Amino acid sequence: MAGAGGGGCPAGGNDLQWCFSQVKGAIDEDVAEADIISTVEFNYSGDLLATGDKGGRVVIFQREQEVPVLKPMDLMVEASPRRVFANAHTYHVNSISVNSDHETYLSADDLRINLWHLEITDRSFNIVDIKPANMEELTEVITAAEFHPHQCNVFVYSSSKGTIRLCDMRSSALCDRHSKFFEEPEDPSSRSFFSEIISSISDVKFSHSGRYMMTRDYLSVKVWDLNMESRPVETHQVHEYLRSKLCSLYENDCIFDKFECCWNGSDSAVMTGSYNNFFRMFDRNARRDVTLEASRENSKPRASLKPRKVCTGGKRKKDEISVDSLDFNKKILHTAWHPTENIIAVAATNNLYIFQDKIN
């Protein structure tokens, strides 16, 4: 991973110039399902960057002070699992979150959240269970869950109905009653067949400070103050121009894509992905946003990323792309921001792009 100096975390808006650093992955047009990157995350120091793919492989990149040179070599390290935590979920696990006590973690699937001790592999405690007695009465599923970064007794989970529940494990062993319930009232005039689908929350992330949390639904990113449950304090439109395309997005199943989101190290900016290998950054302080593209065409070292704009109608300008020309097979679902510097990792199908600020 290329090095980048500098202190602090300026926001990711228009006044911060981003440039290409590295790209990892094959150039093949035909991508095997097993090669698609399914997660990307920095460690707490930012010196390690891990990716996982749908084939069950985990690749860890270590940061070097010199821009590394790729050399073919035999495999020298082979990872083997130290512990296997099994037989606790009936459905696919959608979230894993390590607690701030560094002793426990939670795992969540569509209907249940379990609490584990890192040293105990053969049993867990069920702390949330929304499975109805009759599955025909099921109206929502759990979509994401995360522990609070500082309060080891607090966690949140989101649902397919666009709601977020904050739970306190001190109040009850089974957190079937939430402490706080976050939901934005729907505007009846804008309700449509797709309303419930696009309101489903695909990701929830606490800010590093623990004061806020961010949620991602299909069209927007919302920032919530933990002290205000009635509505978000910020709403950032990611690709509002797709609202008129919801019918075709439903037919090709793209409307069910699960986009993730992330904070920068100082909580002053947020980032999330879109289609056409676009990703969006929102500067919370300056109230500005920018659209950038992860592309091999701009993969020259230190090449600046030019902001991209989508034309929704009328005469298209030279540097704009028509909404009808967007490639919905190219999507950025997973992104990560270095904890202390302006270095970002963006997963585009089977390629991992790394960008850094131009200053460094």
Automatic annotation (TrEMBL):
<comment type="similarity">
    <text>Belongs to the phosphatase 2A regulatory subunit B family.</text>
</comment>
<protein>
    <recommendedName>
        <fullName>Serine/threonine-protein phosphatase 2A 55 kDa regulatory subunit B</fullName>
    </recommendedName>
</protein>
<dbReference type="InterPro" id="IPR015943">
    <property type="entry name" value="WD40/YVTN_repeat-like_dom_sf"/>
</dbReference>
<keyword id="KW-0677">Repeat</keyword>
<dbReference type="InterPro" id="IPR036322">
    <property type="entry name" value="WD40_repeat_dom_sf"/>
</dbReference>
<keyword id="KW-0853">WD repeat</keyword>
<dbReference type="InterPro" id="IPR000009">
    <property type="entry name" value="PP2A_PR55"/>
</dbReference>
<dbReference type="InterPro" id="IPR001680">
    <property type="entry name" value="WD40_rpt"/>
</dbReference>
<dbReference type="Pfam" id="PF00400">
    <property type="entry name" value="WD40"/>
</dbReference>
